[in-house]
Amino acid sequence: MKKLDNTLIIGIGNNTRQDDGLGWSFIDLLENNGFNTEHLLCKYQLMVEDAELISNYKNVIFVDACKSELNNGFSIEPILASEQVTFSTHEVPPNQILHLCESVYNKKPKATLIKIQGYNWDFEICLSKQATKNLKKTFSLFKNKWDVI
Question: Is pTM beyond 0.85 here?
Fold first, then answer.
């Protein structure tokens, strides 16, 4: 088991868009199970300024909803910095935040991306039943893989 020392966990999404709130719901589960809340953050989207934020940590875990079909309804995978730059006023992907962190702050936090499969994306504050099942499976594996609780 790995300890979550010097680790920031960022839940990405929007809880008013049904399953897009999976990242935030994951953060809620951590908080409700006694995880140190000063290292948890909910964001609608990542922005270039987040490169400075993650430069203060040895590890960063991004948690986000996914529309693609995923084995078991979720995936947990390491991610690396990417030089590929795409312009969007909406978001900056985690691998580009890592690249900015590396190039601007000369820091290379170890990064993990947790994707949780969602199904419904309408304006409503609730998760679908299947997304809730995927969230619970993801959280169970996460707390067993990392020594969080």
Answer: yes
Helix intervals (H) in 3-147? 22-32, 50-54, 94-105, 129-145
Our CA angle for 100, 102, 104, nearest 5°, is 60
Q: How far apart are the first and last CA of the chain?
A: 12
What confidence tens digit (pLDDT) does each residue in 45-95 have?
999 999 999 999 999 999 999 999 999 999 999 999 887 655 554 578 999
**What are the tokens at 58?**
């040895």
74: Cβ contacts below 8 Å, ≥ 6 apart = 114, 115, 116, 117, 134, 137, 138, 141
How far apart, in whole angstroms, are the C-alpha atoms of residue 104 and residue 108?
Answer: 11
- Specify the pairing of strand 110-117 against strand 74-79: antiparallel
Helix (H) or strand (E) holding 23: helix 22-32
Going from the N-terminus, what domains does the chain have, and what CATH number goes with each? 7-144 (3.40.50.1450)
The Cα 11–Cα 114 span in angstroms is 9
Dist. CA 17–CA 125, nearest whole Å? 6
